[in-house]
């Protein structure tokens, strides 16, 4: 599948005229993909640092392209956002994530949350809140288990409207977190105004936290600020025990990363959660 990924990538890039053709092809196949529901959802565990237990997961979309096979988000999310298809893809991902989470809870798995990524186009879309409500109703998932991830950049691009949509989602009982924290250009004042419960520290601050004192200081400051605002903190992209040790010392609540697991299919996620309880 690595080979396929590379083929798809070089196919969709190279020079400009090829790029236009490739975009048209990608565009057509994306429209079909939505109709044929060619997307699947993988789950990356979120782990409580103090206990080592998996407490939830982030839902991450993959496209099973009929010819190219397994296709990563960076190959199709940008065009899907540009064309607005992300609205419908987002609905399909959210529905699958809610179905899977409901199934896990009904089977007795003890989990706190399933996190789903939002994009600007979804927040802008008129029918968005209604579609979230419809999915919560049809899947019978208690909204307190659902978490939406938004970025600072998204919020700043659409401040007034984003505030009103996020307030409404929060009033439904949904949890909200800031994704890729520290990478967007923004004032921090939105943290006061918005009903946010969690900050996800971007992987770029975690990558060299076991080697770079500046990254330790930045992470320490983010955690201190978050805690004083009553927010929980999750560190993204943890790959090594040495990174985890520092995050534990800094009292970071939870992490995601290859150190626990890559994003995996629901069956494999179940196995991971089961294993830790035996
Ligand atoms: P993100 O939301 O920041 O997701 C985290 C990305 O980091 C995921 O890549 C995940 O596989 C990767 N990752 C997690 N832990 C590690 C690690 O320890 N090391 C390394 N090297 N990488 C790690 P992925 O799944 O390729 O997703 C990329 C981006 O695509 C996501 O970044 C998100 O912005 C977007 N995306 C994925 N699924 C959806 C979706 O359903 N809707 C929307 N709107 N965007 C999505
Ligand atoms: Ca995310
Ligand atoms: Ca992220
Ligand atoms: Ca990131």
Automatic annotation (TrEMBL):
Domain EAL as annotated: residue spans: 23-277
GO molecular function: cyclic-guanylate-specific phosphodiesterase activity
Catalytic reactions of this protein: 3',3'-c-di-GMP + H2O = 5'-phosphoguanylyl(3'->5')guanosine + H(+)
Top-level lineage group: Bacteria
GO-annotated biological processes: cellular response to nitric oxide
Record-given protein name: EAL domain-containing protein
Native species: Sulfurimonas aquatica
Positions spanned in the full protein: 215 to 492 of 492
